[in-house]
Amino acid sequence: MASFLQRLVDPRKNFLARMHMKSVSNRLRRYGLRYDDLYDPLYDLDIKEALNRLPREIVDARNQRLKRAMDLSMKHEYLPDNLQAMQTPFRSYLQDILALVKRERAEREALGALPLYQRTIP
């Protein structure tokens, strides 16, 4: 069953998944965003911890992309076509550190240690 689901969401094997990935890519390129920029640190504390571990220049670049996207959205405009062509929406900068943070949290829970952060999200 798991291999069926993996084939279902793999863009290399499923036409609809490929179309969806292309659609998401086009929308992200219009505003100059990357897929990892869409993660909200207020929603998931693991993401907040992963962002805290990233180098400052990567976090600054992320914040700049988000500000530019909000500005373009408010003006009802898109990036110029030449800048859209240079965008890399699926180049990840957060996934490796996020996986490390999740593994550390799972290890702490397995050992019975206190979590790194204790906060409930409404």
Automatic annotation (TrEMBL):
It is found in: Mitochondrion inner membrane. The keyword Electron transport applies. One of its GO terms (cellular component) is mitochondrial inner membrane. Keywords: Electron transport, Membrane, Mitochondrion, Mitochondrion inner membrane, Respiratory chain, Transport. This is Cytochrome b-c1 complex subunit 7. Component of the ubiquinol-cytochrome c oxidoreductase, a multisubunit transmembrane complex that is part of the mitochondrial electron transport chain which drives oxidative phosphorylation. It is a peripheral membrane protein. It holds the Pfam family UCR_14kD. Component of the ubiquinol-cytochrome c oxidoreductase (cytochrome b-c1 complex, complex III, CIII), a multisubunit enzyme composed of 10 subunits. The complex is composed of 3 respiratory subunits cytochrome b (MT-CYB), cytochrome c1 (CYC1-1 or CYC1-2) and Rieske protein (UCR1-1 or UCR1-2), 2 core protein subunits MPPalpha1 (or MPPalpha2) and MPPB, and 5 low-molecular weight protein subunits QCR7-1 (or QCR7-2), UCRQ-1 (or UCRQ-2), QCR9, UCRY and probably QCR6-1 (or QCR6-2). Belongs to the UQCRB/QCR7 family. Gene3D superfamilies: Cytochrome b-c1 complex subunit 7. GO terms for biological process: mitochondrial electron transport, ubiquinol to cytochrome c.
